[in-house]
Design goal:
The structure holds 2 protein chains of 2 kinds. Helices cover about 65% and strands about 0% of the residues of chain A. By secondary structure, chain A is an all-alpha fold. Chain A has 2 domains: about 170 residues, no CATH class; about 170 residues, no CATH class. In chain A, helix 1 runs parallel beside helix 4 and helix 4 packs parallel to helix 6. Chain B starts with a helix and ends with a helix. Chain B has 9 helices and 2 strands. A two-stranded antiparallel sheet of chain B has the order 1-2. In chain B, helix 2 packs parallel to helix 8, helix 4 runs parallel beside helix 7 and helix 5 packs across helix 6. The radius of gyration of chain B is 19 Å and the shape is globular. The longest helix of chain B has about 30 residues. The chains are: A mainly alpha, B mainly alpha.
Chain lengths: ~375, ~220
Amino acid sequence: MRFAYKPSPHIKARVSTKDILNTVLIALIFVTAWSLVAQFINFGTDYVLRSALIIAVACVVAILTNVVFYLVKTDGQKFSSFVERLKSTVPKTKKGAPLITALILALSLPVGTPIYAVIIATIFAEFFAKLLFGGFGGNVFNPAAVGLVVGGITFGSQVILPDVYAGATPLATISGLYGWRLTDATGLGFIAGYGGFIPMLFGAVRGSIGDPARVAVLIALVFMIYKRVLDWVVPAVYIATVVAITGLFSLYLGVGIWYPTLHVLSGGLLFGAVFMATDPVTTPVNRQGRILFAIFLAMVTLVIRFNSSHTESMAFSILIMNMFVPLIDRKTANITKESTTMKAVGVCIAFVIAISVTLGLTITLG
Amino acid sequence: MEANADVNLAPKQDLNEVFLVGIIRENPVLVMLLSLCPILGVSSNFVNSVGMGVITGVVILFTNIMISLSGRFIPNEIRIPVIITIIATAVTIMEMLTNAFLPDLHAALGIFLPLIVVNCIVFGRAEGFALKNKLLPSILDALGITIGLVLAFGLMGFVRELLGTGAIGLLVLDLRIFPAEFAVPLFVMPAGAFIVLGVIVGIISTIKISKASKEKKNA
């Protein structure tokens, strides 16, 4: 994490890293529980057991990866016995917050993911994306997004198991069949097939494990904003930009107001906006940077969603934007000196760029 | 003339040392981090990867021999164009030979075969070693470097093909080690090359550092 140096007065933060992590963990457990209950009500026992197994495997593998890593990497410390060595890994593992990564990853994975793929994705998330970069706080890329991308691109063909759930997820249908170029008839028919927006919001949607818990994600967002563990600006600006761009695109397509709503409610967009885009380690430090980050994140998400064969764009866009965080941080380091007008002009320019790039690419390529 | 030339040459080296140093201690890829482009590009398959290593090794041998023989006739000011011309000749010969006798390998290696011309390790050995040394040390140096190259290419190809497909294809034999559904195809993709190379280089430098610190303690 980088610090932005400002002139005094300094205000001592009331929340510590530990508190932040605990609050996020509580929010995630709440979302998980909600999701499992919603799945049980809508799809039955098999589905829930499968989800619970994936979540449990991800958590166990994440903790084990940390423990094994710190067993090997002792930083020259000497131990009299193996038990002592094992004990020394506990505080280091706790500091690394493996459960948060594991839960975010598991909630973003499809229900049909093979257990083997879950294990590999979790190891990649914890070991390659977090521990090799120096543990929590040193990682450049969002660990859960790395795990998700590894799982998605290497096991893409196997993620849906016939015995649990046969058929494409809604996102795969819209993306594969129509490439998001829906008309009023196809789009509204599609939503009606899922019983309308309200069931979609309350969990009657098959997809990734966290998909049925959209309401819970919103509640968790409010809870985390109230606890001041995340900056409300990021999800707000992100979703506003998505709505603005897709709203303009719906005018181009000539479809109704349901179109931007469908965009916000489908895939991991909402979940990623709340739990991945607000990660304090891999996102810009100051607010101006965060606003720019959120706007361009929306741009990348929608460009990938409209124009690529990948159905899930959230993790890719998070990783791509993570690479630009140092640049954004450097360019906005002295932003406190700038006037509010200048900041607003910067945001407006970013917004216009995001809209024109997304729509320009999508319309010319489509 | 002979005696005069000897003064200009590098001090006499232990021939054993010249041969051995390139294999592991100064491994061209894993320690000196040269020749990264081909190893990232073609190491997704064990046989192709070793083939690339061997072809590069033959080019190094050819250029080292030519340069060490003609070294004293090359004016210092134009040594780079001369060396490049000799390397290009060797690469062209090798490319034509591969195309004629190993068409499958030629097709698999593609653009990376002509690109050996700009491979740092070939130029590095020619300019840094063969130009200043006699024929025998230059040949030994080329052989040592070649073994190091083939080891590195083979290791990368082996790890990537094993983890990426679960089997090692040895020309006619398909050696299946574990079932294909447990393979991680990421490792045969370009991203996997970076990850595997990074991990191997990391392990080697960790060993080197711990060895050096132990020697310091003992000394």
